[in-house]
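thoughts on these tokens:
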Amino acid sequence: MASGGRWRSRSALRSLFLLVTLVLNIKLMLFIFGPEEPAVPPRNLTVLIWHWPFYRPLDLTGDVCADLYNIKRCHLTADREKYNFSDVVVFHHVELVKEGQVVATMARPPGQKWVWATLESPSNIRGVSKWNNIFNWTLSYREDADIFVPYGRMVPRSSPNTYNFNRTGMAAWVVSHYKKTQERAQFVHELSSHLNVDIYGRANRRPLCPTCLIPTVSHYFFYLALENSVHRDYITEKLWQNSFTAGAVPVVLGPPRENYERFVPSDSFIHISDFPSPKDLTKFLLTMAPQRYRQFFRWREELEVKLYTDWRERFCMICTKYTSLQQNKVYTDLEGWFNKSDQQQ
């Protein structure tokens, strides 16, 4: 009896261990790919948008967060008359620089939290240090931000994958802000001496309308997803939309490969650092066998891309994080945070 009891006890422990392991694995997958449904705040929260990013207002009619993004108990408003009744006020950095003097002297209602928002890299913004000791939370593409809002992410596939490998062009690059001194410009200049690269954008007098970009890139085998600056986690629509959505294999210039691999499968892209020179990269691209090329699409069998393009969704996400954030937090050195972590790639 004692021996049988011990056996049943060990069996029960093994079953419990397997159950705990299963739960932890499920939680890990949810952490990587995100929950099926956003977290629900314990009460109704009001988020005041002090400035619409780039002065481009969006429609807030109805229950936007719930109706569009299934984020409940979260109310967005751009009505500054509701300032004293708002739980959170979010400020976008570009407009803050232009009109921030008034903001710096505003009295804050007890318990109200201020969020500093930007999707730009440290190379593309200035004046961050002016906002030390003011903001409680950050909203950024950076994974260590309080409200992490990437340009896109991988999610489990919701429908069967169908893909057409027919292509007519080798490589394309779409660039809106071109500077010869940029690393990406120098890279393309050298690459173009070995590989036919079709360049689109205002700088090259081949502009694309907003709805033309994806159909155009979809005719190419490769897309040059070259970031305008190299910073930790700064992986923009150039990868998520211009490459993945269009169906071209991205050739990336940005943070190190291991940083990309935190967000996308290692065999979903080509990193320029994998090759000693643009000439060596060209040789790899031109001699790639069809079977090898198809391997860059294996991730599509189980995953698909979710894009974050609506500022309303980004602001609604503040509510999903609200209860898990440090309520007494204040960024005493906002610029230091924005730059220091970047140096720790």
